Amino acid sequence: MALSDVLYGVYERRLVASLDRTRIPRHVGVILDGNRRWAADQGSSTAHGHRAGAAKIEDLLGWCEEVDVEVVTLWLLSTDNLERPAGELDPLLAIIEETVTGLASHGTWRIHPVGALDLLPAHTAEVLKKAESDTSTRSGIIVNVAVGYGGRREVVDAVRALLAEHAARGTTLDDLAAAVDVEHIAEHLYTAGQPDPDLVIRTSGEQRLSGFLLWQSAHTELYFCEAYWPDFRKVDFLRALRAYAARGRRFGS
What we know:
Blueprint: H1 3-18, E1 27-31, H2 35-42, H3 46-66, E2 71-78, H4 86-104, E3 110-114, H5 122-135, E4 142-149, H6 151-169, H7 173-179, H8 182-186, E5 199-202, E6 221-224, H9 234-246
Parallel strand pairs: 1-2, 1-5, 2-4, 3-4, 5-6
Function: Catalyzes the condensation of isopentenyl diphosphate (IPP) with allylic pyrophosphates generating different type of terpenoids.
Cofactor: Mg(2+)
Subunit structure: Homodimer.
């Protein structure tokens, strides 16, 4: 075994031992960024980068299980990504379908698609719906797979659903305007019924949310990691948890 591997193992164990188990986030969101740049650095295809990134997801979920994270949201494809050329988008959708099917076969994880499924190809939408149906009775981590997801689109869809619900009840527009509040909209988000994310991790060195969980992340702690997603290691994850635990969370300020 190489000396670097030995040192890595020692450092990882120290990080695990130093974690404050009383301050583990319930819900972790991850922006899996950098697959394409990783592939370019490797001199390989974009599809190879996406496959390498997809292979990292099971590792992440395993690390989350070890520390009792309850919900993980993975941003796999944005609404903006749907505008990419078919030569890049079609292989990416196929990788996402394979990945979600693999996650659903794990045995404990509950898959929950979040995104505008109506914008996706019919086959991709069906794969996501089947994964959710097949895993709905499980008791493990809730894995939100954000595909065709955009934060602004989510809020618009929530408002539309709210309006449709009250129209069916015969609520007048004036009565709805007088009664609607933050909780009414939250009840119609893709993540309705789930805790808001405590921690969002973004890889690749980019320091922005890009609309990820736009509504839900009002009080979320953010952690930006320099590593491209395929290179994201357990020590990177543990560092994010350590940084989260060290912060004094201030809700509303």
